[in-house]
From TrEMBL:
Alphabetical list of SUPFAM superfamilies matching this protein: beta-lactamase/transpeptidase-like
Domain Beta-lactamase-related: 32-259
Database matches in InterPro entries: Beta-lactam-related, Beta-lactam/transpept-like, Diverse_Enzym_Activities
Protein name: Penicillin-binding protein
Pfam families in the cross-refs: Beta-lactamase
Organism the protein comes from: Brachybacterium avium
Amino acid sequence: MSSLDVLEEFGFEAAAIVLGPEGERARRGDVDLVRPWRSVTKTFTGCGATLAIQEGHVDLEDAAGPPGATLRHLLSHASGYFYESANTLQAPGLRRHYSNFGIDEAARHVERGIGGDFGDWVQERIAQPLGMTGLEWSGSASVGAHGPLTDLALFAAELLRPTLLEARWSAEMTCVQFPELVGIMPGFGKQSPNPFGLGIEVRGTKSPHWTGGDNSPATVGHFGMRGTAFWVDPEADLALVIGTSHDFCDAHREVMPRLADAVLAEHAG
C-alpha cells in the first residue's frame, strides 16, 4: 500500500508527487501534463515580489493599491480590494479579503520597481534557476500560470530548502502577515483567523481545510480552482504536489485532507 493510492478516491484523473528534503520520494499519474495552476500562480508572484524586495527594488511598506495600503497588504489579501476589481470593501488591514485584483496590483507595483515585465522576472529569477522548463506565464499574476507537476515540484522543493531567498526573506514570505485578521477562505468558509503570508497561504488552525488534520500550522501552499495544489510542511520536512482533471469540487474537499494525512503517515519522521 502506498499513500498515493488515495488518489483513486477522487473518481477522476489525478496525479501527485511527494518530496522530502533529498528530493522526490514518490509519484503517481501523469506528472508531465501541462495543467492550469490558477491561484497556485500567486505563490510565484509572492516569491517574485519577495526577490524584488530582497534586492532593494521595492519595499513591503511601499504605498501600493488603495489609499492607506502597502505592498504587504496587497500580497497578503489585506488591502480591502474586492475579488476582481479596484473597488474596495473596507479600509486596509481590517479583514482578510481574498483578492485576485490585489495580487495583480502587487505585480504591477513590482514591475515599476524592477523596470520590466513581471512574467519575465519570474521566468528569469525563479523558473530558470530552478530548472522549470515547462512553466507558461501569461496574463494575470494571480491566476495565469500553467505547467506540469514536475515544475511545481521543483518550486515546492525550493520552499523546503530555499536557495533563491535569503533566510530572512524566505521566513518573511512564509510567515503570517497581519495574524489577527478574519476572513473567508475560498471553498471553505469563514476562518478566524485566516492566515496568509506573501502570496502564499499559511495553514494555521483553519478548519475545515484542504490540507490534512496532521499538517502542522506552519504548512504553506495554495490550491487552484482548476484542481492543482501543493503544500509544504516544514515541521514534517515534506511537500506534496497534486494535479487533477476536474475543477475544485466536493471531491477535493474530502479527498485532499485524507491524501495529506496518508502522505504524512507514510513519509514523515
